[in-house]
Design brief:
With 241 residues, the protein is α/β, with parallel strands linked by helices. It contains eight helices and ten strands.
């Protein structure tokens, strides 16, 4: 476990794994944890992660990424979230009341324990959104917000909170393909100290569609019907489908 960042760097330097943008890494002394059980893996990490210490960015470099969430080709960023040790929080399963009283963010929904989706107006530009998300919780509310949100580890700001929370695959696809870590990660009561960024409250990921993103890939119904007809009885590819 003491070499957890060494192992993270090994992963990010290995073959196709080097294209990853988000790397969640931990160690389990009982050797029972598996990444194949995604909800359990997230639970284990989010119960332990200290966002004031455990978030490590790779920014302002030509490292490659899997998709085009950055503002240019091969200009994206990466983040390692490395958590190990004893539990530091019990994960909440319901949205705290403070998330229901925000000015510019609505419809909080539980994705899984400790993870909330909340929706906002369409993304405009980074300067505007940075100001809004940095004041997600008004400063005068901060003293009350931190204890009120102690069971929440991650807040996903999205275009449709109901869709994000509807099933696990929606959350994974939406959150980690629509976010560029250096540009789209914020935090409640965030700070920078000796070049290290962290936050004392929950982590926030802005996973809304950005103007530079590719348009959604939506299948054409007419084309689908034509293809299906080829495999139907009497079609040229009948029996092969």
């Amino acid at each position: 476990p003491a070499e957890i960042l060494t192992i993270a760097n090994r992963i990010l330097g290995t073959g196709q794994l080097s294209l990853a943008k988000f790397l969640f890494i931990t160690a389990d002394d009982s050797n029972q944890l598996s990444t194949k059980n995604i909800p359990e893996y997230f639970r284990f990490i989010l119960e332990r992660i200290d966002f004031s210490r455990d978030v490590h960015f790779y920014t302002n470099t030509s490292i490659d990424t899997l998709d085009y969430s950055g503002t240019g080709l091969n200009t994206g960023s990466k983040v390692v979230l490395a958590a190990y040790g004893e539990k530091i929080r019990e994960l909440a399963t319901d949205a705290p009341s403070i998330l229901k009283e925000l000015r510019d963010f609505t419809n909080p929904r539980t994705v899984m324990p400790g993870i909330m989706a909340i929706q906002s107006a369409a993304f405009s530009d980074y300067k505007t959104e940075e100001n809004r998300l940095n004041s997600f919780i008004e400063k005068e509310q901060m003293a009350l917000a931190i204890p009120a949100l102690k069971g929440i580890a991650l807040i996903v700001v999205c275009d449709d909170a109901d869709f994000c929370a509807a099933q696990l695959n929606n959350f994974l696809w939406l959150t980690f393909t629509r976010a560029n870590p250096s540009h789209d990660i914020y935090g409640i009561d965030a700070f920078t100290e000796h070049k290290h960024w962290g936050c004392r409250g929950p982590l926030i990921i802005d996973a809304r569609i950005k103007p530079h993103h590719a348009p959604p890939l939506i299948m054409d119904e007419k084309v689908e019907r034509k293809v299906d007809s080829l495999f139907a009885k009497g079609g040229s590819l009948a029996g092969l489908g």
